[in-house]
Design a protein that fits this description.
With about 375 residues, this protein is α/β, with parallel strands linked by helices. It has 14 helices and 12 strands. The strands form 3 sheets. Strands 1-9-8-7-4-2-3 form a 7-stranded mixed beta sheet, with helices on both faces. Helix 5 packs parallel to helix 6 and helix 11 packs antiparallel against helix 14. The two termini are about 30 Å apart.
Length: about 375
């Protein structure tokens, strides 16, 4: 969901990007992004999805002579191993059971087994499985061993606690269409000095996603190629909203919505999928006898709620609910109510109102603290 006022801001007359207007706007966006990522590092905007920024970061930080450990615990985690393979980057994939997040012990064991590993790539919030990875704990391991840590924070930044500098993460990446409350089309990469030393040590086999080109243009708050002007303008407005609310308040509300949704699932007799559930997205297992595609179609066409299905091996097996960005307690109560009615319509035994009541109790407790 995109706030109406952000959409209206993006509908205003377009200014040319080689102007003082754009440079001033981008300067403010950069400062707001530093707040969002909790960092003093350089934050760059890419015209593309989060994948474009992540690809640029991986390729730049893994020149020949370096080896990456790629944690594969979901569909998006697998993509980063595909980037390594596509660019001929030496890497070791570490497969974890879907629904589980990476732990520091996983990283320690893998690096002990292969001392050549000097880069670790993880997904903070694996959207496809709704699993949480312990980035803070893993960062302690990588720092102790002198390795770089690259984090896909596409459904984490702006939704979950992300403290890039405090945790000592080298690269954090996000995208506009998640917690930033914008349409798709912008990737963001926050890159610290240790990462820049690695990037400067090699040649990037890419043009459009060359981090060095973005850094060079950033010196004058410009862009190396034509930027997505309207999205940058929308980003300034949306990021102002986030800063005015305060990140800690945003993180707390996201966690509240997740707790309420998990409580509702339990009350309705549904099982959660993730063993290490993340707060930005919740996955529920589709119960036996329920048609997942028909369920989502009814939710969309009859009740007006868009929910996501599973990906890869999880297609048809789970349904997913977002708690990121422009969504609140009443949106959450609405989708829970629609789910109850839809499940009942398919013959699943559910007490109407049980999920809503469980969620409301969570909200009542949180809002009276």
């Amino acid at each position: 969901m995109v706030p109406e006022e952000v959409m209206l801001e993006m509908a205003r007359p377009i200014e040319h990007h080689r102007t003082a207007f754009y440079r001033d706007m981008y300067k403010e966006v950069h400062e707001l992004l530093q707040y969002l990522f909790q960092t003093k590092a350089l934050c760059m905007l890419f015209t593309g999805s989060g994948t474009s920024a992540m690809e640029g970061a991986i390729v730049g930080c893994c020149p020949p002579g370096h080896k990456a450990l790629v944690i594969r615990n979901g569909k998006f985690a697998e993509r980063w191993a595909q980037v390594c393979a596509s660019f001929g980057i030496e890497h070791t994939p570490l497969d974890l059971e879907w629904g589980h997040g990476a732990k520091p012990a996983d990283i320690t064991k893998a690096m002990d087994a292969d001392p050549a590993i000097d880069t670790v790539i993880v997904v903070h919030s694996e959207t496809s499985t709704t699993a949480l990875t312990d980035v803070e704990g893993i960062a302690r391991i990588t720092r102790e061993r002198g390795a770089l840590l690259l984090v896909d924070g596409i459904t984490a930044v702006g939704a979950l606690p992300v403290k890039m500098d405090e945790w000592d993460v080298d690269v954090y990446v996000s995208g506009s269409q998640k917690a930033m409350m914008l349409p798709p089309g912008l990737g963001v990469a926050a890159v610290n000095e240790r990462a820049w030393e690695r990037i400067d040590s090699g040649k990037m086999p890419t043009l459009y996603n060359d981090l060095k080109a973005y850094r060079k243009s950033h010196k004058t708050f410009d862009a190396p190629y034509t930027p997505a002007l309207t999205l940058v303008r929308g980003a300034r407005y949306a990021l102002r909203i986030i800063k005015e609310r305060g990140l800690e308040n945003v993180w707390a509300e996201t966690a509240m919505l997740a707790r309420a949704t998990r409580a509702a699932a339990e009350a309705m007799g549904l099982k959660l999928f993730a063993a290490d559930p993340v707060d930005s997205v919740t996955a529920m297992i589709v119960p036996a006898g329920v048609d997942e595609a028909a369920l989502r179609k009814t939710m969309r066409n009859k009740y007006g709620f868009q929910i996501a299905g599973g990906q890869g091996d999880l297609k048809g097996k789970i349904i997913r609910f977002s708690h990121m960005g422009y969504v609140d307690a009443f949106d959450t109560l609405g989708v829970i109510g629609a789910l109850e009615l839809t499940l009942a319509g398919q013959g699943f035994s559910v007490t109407i109102g049980s999920g809503i009541s469980a969620a409301q109790r969570i909200f009542a407790e949180a809002m009276t603290d």
